[in-house]
């Protein structure tokens, strides 16, 4: 079932926001690719550019405040997304790629029945008539495990709970059978038990529909047994990327270690201090020719403050941007592993 | 925990909620029972974690316990003395002893005030200090929460979320309280910043012998910081036990489901297998189910659960459960 | 692949060994502020300056106020000075805006009229906002039944047409002076602001920083003075700016229909009314006061727009 067909390639993505204080360079040269049916996770803290990267793929950022720099390349299914016109973009979103957001309430139209909202895109993108679309909408709602779907299609968003709304969002996003689904913090606003339900649902749908998923999240716990590959982002750059196992068991970047060890581990009874990064991420207005993490890194070296490190390949899938990978650098051991898992 | 000694206490408990209720009016003759006959006893110097899903009343419980909301009924005892009816000077004295840290680091600081003014607000009420003394104390507090003293004459919007939360902590500490309600203080922060704030709170507790009521929906953080944990569901406490018991030997089906829903940061952990899945969602607090409020989502529910509400009882020493199954 | 190659090339330059000793974190560098300190009002001023349209409106208003204060003196004529030798003259070097049917200098009259209009606008809006703020503040602070009753009163007042009140008052007091008109206009004018203030204060009341002050035991009066009012200020300022053109227009309208200012005093509305009879022959007599009314109203509205954008904390970055 798994093919190695690349359906999305992003190269040298640069995104800037023009604010009064100057140009905020939110994404600084990100490249990655996505294969059919694969799940890729962007992990990082707020302001690291993970969400901006995801939105750029769909060209959802509003100019003139946001600007995708011309040197960026986004190729989806052999088509250049950067060159798409308004009409093409409209068909592209929905047909090929769709997105779910953190807060389903703001992305659903409050004055429209949920069924109608699903039907609209079905009628538009898949040329269905009203009756077919309605049947399909009910089928979609059933697929995302909404009980009493026949009745629920006629509900307004406010008549539903948060978890239910997120299910509707997922149904809407999948209605046109997109090849890629971008999920931007889909469970952040939900309670743990509902969060688990939604993640189960996404896992189930992933297998059923063979959709490639880009999951944007700050929560490593959510990603662990969901994503095939993980990219750790910081200050608009990818610091480390690899398969889930490589990131969780063999991570090489001090920032990844810090992320992993700043969350208390389940079943770990020690009351000792959590590992806490000092300081705050750099202001993205600054040019940053050094390693963006240098000022907060325990293992910061002289070179780190002078030059941004290049990406080093550890394996085919595992790549790290850190001067510690340089042959001359001292060998340091991950402080994450020592606590055991 | 020798270092967690407070002043000679008048009572074994620093703060007790006895049959505490807080109902909010929602339309005609309809009430939301946000806090419904809650009993909590806080020991000196401990951290009690309060968990539950949104709308379970954990925040209202915290706010009512320090009289930020007027309780509908029930008693609140501070060091053995009933404070639920206090007024004027005595109430002011109580407020000096209990403080609160809020969730939203953006909404909890007045945008028109400098950091110095925000921190010294409580001092103006409770302490007669000269301008120099006040300035010195503000600087001390800023240093204590790990911030540069230069921040004193800056405005809140110039700070990051984590820094703002530190200001919130400094404001609470300014009046030298004994008891602090931490109302989801880390939910709005990034993971690495969460760790900073939690470490700071734990350090302050060690140094100053504070007692915390730590409210959160993040079960792993609660486990890390708490000595005891209370689990709330629709306005009632369903289980209350020492942290270790809650996480390894909980008795209430809801607690068990909550614990097993915690995402594990380990790709090989098979969460699917031994997870207790909860169906459906929390019922509307406007008309909660009869009897045990959890029965609609509980897989062990019997007829008795619909007919009769279970009460919180001590099933083992220091382990309280409200469930018919545990009798 | 090309990117990969480029990278490997960049790795090539030989980096001295000493660059690879771990220096760790510079504790002092951590919390330095990159951006300079700005207060709320400085920030608002910065944003306001960026709004060119609002800035132009503000300049126009300043110029107009200058002339309203000094204009009558510049002209060299008294506004009520009748000159039978110079009736209905068009604009000239002698009379910049021409003269009216009694030979009065229109330049002097337009600015004199501006005084009345502007006083009505400013005083009306200020009185209304003070009354409205206090009323709305009380309603919001006490809440419950008090709030309910107070807001019902506002609704009743708002449903009474102000024209009726003006007529009633001028009949009862038997005068049509500036004072009567002010009273008549502000009698219901404060209701809008009362509603705005109440809404904002109710919202502030449940804000966490107000709860924090409550938890600290700060007294209600101090909470109102130190938290509620400063945080409502920007809203009130914007409301005042938007209210001023309303008052100016109401005055103009009342004077135009003859319920307002009486001769020899004058206002823009009264000037328009007088000019209207001879409009076919001497259009400039209507043109100048008309432009003044339009320009002031437009400028205040644009200024209000600019202020709202500048003062709205939600737009802060």
From TrEMBL, chain A:
InterPro entries: AAA+_ATPase, ABC_Ni/Peptide_Import, ABC_transporter-like_ATP-bd, ABC_transporter-like_CS, Oligopep_ABC_C, P-loop_NTPase. The keyword Transmembrane does not apply. Residues 8-260 form the ABC transporter domain. It is found in: Cell membrane. One of its GO terms (molecular function) is ATP binding. It is a peripheral membrane protein. Keywords: ATP-binding, Cell membrane, Membrane, Nucleotide-binding, Transport. Belongs to the ABC transporter superfamily. This is ABC transporter ATP-binding protein. The lineage of its organism: Bacteria, Bacillati, Bacillota, Clostridia, Eubacteriales.
């Amino acid at each position: 079932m798994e093919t190695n067909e690349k359906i999305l390639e992003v190269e040298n993505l640069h995104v800037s926001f023009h604010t009064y204080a100057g140009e905020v360079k939110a994404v600084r040269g990100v490249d990655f690719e996505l294969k059919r049916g694969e799940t890729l996770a962007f992990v990082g803290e707020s302001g690291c550019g993970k969400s901006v990267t995801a939105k750029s793929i769909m060209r959802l950022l509003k100019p003139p405040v946001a600007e995708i720099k011309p040197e960026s390349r986004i190729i989806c299914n052999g088509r250049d997304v950067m060159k798409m016109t308004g009409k093409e973009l409209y068909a592209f979103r929905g047909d090929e790629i769709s997105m779910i957001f953190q807060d389903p309430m703001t992305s659903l139209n409050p004055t429209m029945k949920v069924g109608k909202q699903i039907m609209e895109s079905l009628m538009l993108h898949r040329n269905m008539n009203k009756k077919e679309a309605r049947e399909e909408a009910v089928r979609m709602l059933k697929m995302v495990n909404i009980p009493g779907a026949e009745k629920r299609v006629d509900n307004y968003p406010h008549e539903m709970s948060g978890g239910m709304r997120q299910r509707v969002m997922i149904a809407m996003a999948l209605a046109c059978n997109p090849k890629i689904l971008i999920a931007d913090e889909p469970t952040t606003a939900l309670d743990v038990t509902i969060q688990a339900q939604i993640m189960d649902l996404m896992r189930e749908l992933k297998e059923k529909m063979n959709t490639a998923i880009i999951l944007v999240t700050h929560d490593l716990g959510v990603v662990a047994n969901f994503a095939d590959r993980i990219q750790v982002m910081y200050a608009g750059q990818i610091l480390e990327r690899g398969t889930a196992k490589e990131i969780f068991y063999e991570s090489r970047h001090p920032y990844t270690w810090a992320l992993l060890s700043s969350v208390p581990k389940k079943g770990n009874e020690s009351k000792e201090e959590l590992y806490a990064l000092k300081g705050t991420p750099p202001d993205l207005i600054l040019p940053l020719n050094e390693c963006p993490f240098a000022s907060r890194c325990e293992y910061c070296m002289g070179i780190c403050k002078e030059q941004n490190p290049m990406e080093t390949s550890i394996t085919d899938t595992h790549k790290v941007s850190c001067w510690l990978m340089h042959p001359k650098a001292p060998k340091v051991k991950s402080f994450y592993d020592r606590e055991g898992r | 925990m020798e270092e967690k000694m407070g002043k000679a206490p008048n009572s074994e408990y620093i703060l007790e909620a006895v049959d505490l209720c807080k109902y909010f009016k929602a339309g005609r003759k309809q009430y939301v029972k946000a806090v419904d006959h809650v009993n909590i006893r806080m020991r000196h110097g401990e951290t009690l974690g309060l968990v539950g899903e949104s709308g379970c009343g954990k925040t209202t419980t915290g706010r009512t316990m320090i009289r930020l909301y007027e309780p509908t009924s029930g008693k609140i005892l501070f060091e053995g003395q009933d404070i639920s009816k206090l007024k004027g000077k005595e109430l002011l004295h109580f407020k000096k002893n209990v403080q609160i840290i809020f969730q939203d680091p953006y909404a909890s600081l007045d945008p028109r005030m400098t950091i110095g003014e925000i921190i010294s607000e409580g001092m103006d009420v409770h302490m007669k200090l000269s301008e120099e003394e006040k300035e010195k104390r503000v600087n001390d507090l800023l240093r204590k929460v790990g911030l540069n003293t230069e921040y004193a004459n800056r405005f809140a919007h110039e700070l990051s979320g984590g820094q703002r939360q530190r200001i919130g902590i400094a404001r609470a500490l300014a009046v030298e309280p004994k008891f602090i309600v931490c109302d989801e203080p880390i939910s709005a922060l990034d993971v690495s910043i969460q760790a900073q704030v939690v470490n700071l709170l734990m350090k302050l507790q060690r140094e100053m012998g504070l007692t915390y009521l730590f409210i959160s929906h993040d079960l792993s953080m609660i486990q890390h910081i708490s000595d005891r944990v209370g689990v709330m569901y629709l306005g009632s406490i369903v289980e209350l036990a020492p942290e270790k018991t809650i996480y390894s030997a909980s008795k209430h089906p809801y607690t068990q489901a909550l614990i097993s829903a915690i995402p594990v940061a380990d790709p090989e952990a098979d969460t699917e297998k031994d997870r207790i899945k909860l169906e459906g969602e929390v019922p509307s607090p406007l008309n909660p189910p009869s009897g045990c409020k959890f029965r609609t989502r509980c897989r062990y529910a019997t007829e008795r659960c619909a007919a009769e509400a279970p009460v919180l009882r001590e099933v083992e020493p220091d382990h309280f459960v409200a469930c018919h199954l545990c009798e | 692949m090309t990117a990969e190659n480029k990278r490997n090339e960049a790795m090539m330059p030989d980096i001295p060994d000493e660059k690879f000793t771990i220096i760790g974190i510079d504790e002092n560098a951590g919390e330095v502020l990159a951006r300079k300190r700005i207060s709320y009002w400085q920030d608002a001023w910065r944003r306001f300056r960026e709004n060119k349209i609002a800035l132009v409106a503000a300049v126009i208003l300043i110029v107009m106020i200058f002339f309203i204060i000094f204009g009558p003196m510049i002209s060299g004529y008294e506004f009520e000075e009748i000159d039978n030798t110079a009736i209905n003259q068009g604009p000239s070097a002698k009379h910049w805006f021409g003269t009216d049917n009694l030979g009065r200098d229109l330049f002097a009259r337009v600015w004199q009229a501006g005084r009345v209009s502007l006083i009505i606008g400013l005083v009306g809006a200020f009185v209304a906002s003070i009354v409205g703020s206090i009323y709305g503040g009380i309603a919001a602070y006490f809440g419950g039944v008090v709030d309910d009753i107070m807001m019902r009163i506002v609704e009743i007042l708002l449903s009474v047409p102000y024209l009726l009140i003006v007529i009633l008052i001028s009949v009862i007091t038997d005068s049509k002076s500036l004072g009567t008109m002010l009273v008549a206009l502000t009698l219901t004018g404060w209701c809008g602001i009362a509603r705005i203030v109440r809404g904002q204060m109710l919202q502030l009341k449940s804000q966490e920083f107000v709860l924090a002050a409550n938890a600290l035991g700060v007294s209600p009066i101090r909470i109102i003075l130190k938290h509620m009012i400063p945080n409502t200020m920007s809203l009130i300022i914007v409301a005042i700016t938007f209210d001023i053109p309303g008052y100016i227009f109401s005055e103009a309208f009342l004077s135009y229909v003859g319920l307002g200012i009486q001769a020899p005093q004058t206002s823009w509305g009264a000037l328009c009314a007088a000019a209207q009879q001879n409009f076919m022959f001497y259009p400039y007599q209507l043109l100048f006061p008309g432009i003044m009314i339009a320009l002031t109203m437009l400028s205040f509205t644009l200024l209000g727009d600019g202020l709202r954008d500048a003062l709205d904390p939600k737009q802060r970055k």
